Amino acid sequence: MNLLVTGGCGFIGSNYIHYIFNTFSDITVINIDKLTYAGNLLNLQAIEKKYGGTRYFFEHADIANADAVNSIFEKYDIDAVVNFAAESHVDRSINDPSPFITTNVMGTQVLLTAARNAKIERFVHVSTDEVYGDLSLDDPAFTEETPLHPSSPYSASKASADMLAYAFYRTYGYNVSITRCSNNYGPYQFPEKLIPLIFTLASADKPLPVYGTGMNIRDWIHVSDHCKGVHLTLMKGKAGKAYNFGGNAERTNLEVIRTILHDLDKSEDLITFVQDRPGHDRRYAMNYSLAQKELGYEPEYSFERGIKETLNWYKKNTDWLKDVQSGAYLEFMKKWYGNN
């Protein structure tokens, strides 16, 4: 299979590419990435070194640029597309929604159109549980039948992209499926997200900003389990259907932060409560029984195992964290691909 992966230099996309090369010997990956602040070539340096030019190819491109995307589809004999490319940080979307509309909505439309025109056999669009809105403490977990009710510009842009994917199925009969997952954690996560942010700040004995009371609840999924779910969808998912993936690990933000502090042997006095985020969703939880039934999905990681392995990875990869924080990885990318 020749597999086009978009956003492959980001956190989840790069983990998916590692999953492919660690699991299969007969898949070639073409990776499209715009290389925004969260896209890091260092995440795939080992893959590039071992497979570059044979089973791995990188294309520096914006998925919202139709000419660039069409040229890539013409250049390679592509069998399937997995679309991870997205602006994904809620706080950034509140500050400026426009990049989220451009990449998440227009970019998805460009990709779907190009893939359909090129007669690509299979398309998986990667989404988020945030398209469902939020839950009260007593509500049952989200199912694929839960109405979409996004709260932030980010989740609204992802819900729009989901609807485009579904429209391509309904209107054109295109073979596209949608995946929705809960909060990911694991290696290579950009340190603006909760777990690497708290690890980084706590390691330096800096104050830990916690929104509101810290009692917002998320269902945490290890990125390896998410990647497995995405690939199961690619291979077994039905056209026009969405599949939920969760980690069966609901935790309050405060519980996650205290787990990290305990692991680092740091004081809870570092916790500093700050004004809550506008429109902050109360709780997410995912019912993934459909994925269990139709795809054979089951998360392998407990939260206790996953968070321990994740924190150990950050401890062993402090140079990666320093490069990301210093901007050195941007200089690394310029050396490889220039300033384009």
List its salient traits:
single chain; 340 residues; alpha/beta; seven-stranded parallel beta sheet; 13 helices; 12 strands; 45% helix
Q: What would you say this structure looks like, in words?
A:
The protein has a single domain, classed as 3-Layer(aba) Sandwich (Rossmann fold). It contains 13 helices and 12 strands. It has helices at about 10-25, 45-50, 65-75, 90-95, 100-115, 155-170, 195-205, 225-235, 255-265, 290-295, 305-315, 320-325, 330-335, and strands spanning about 1-5, 30-35, 55-60, 80-85, 120-130, 175-180, 185, 210, 215-220, 240-245, 250, 270-275. The strands form 3 sheets. The protein has a 7-stranded parallel β-sheet, sandwiched between helices. A 3-stranded mixed β-sheet has the order 7-9-11. It has a two-stranded parallel sheet with strand order 8-12. Helix 1 crosses helix 8 (about 225-235) and helix 7 (about 195-205) runs parallel beside helix 9 (about 255-265). The two termini are about 30 Å apart.
Spans where pLDDT lies below 50 across 5 or more residues? none
Through-space gap between termini: 30 Å
**Secondary structural class:** alpha/beta
Q: Count every beta strand, where a strand is a DSSP E run of 2 or more residues.
A: 12
The coarse overall form would be: globular
> Which topology does CATH recognise?
Rossmann fold
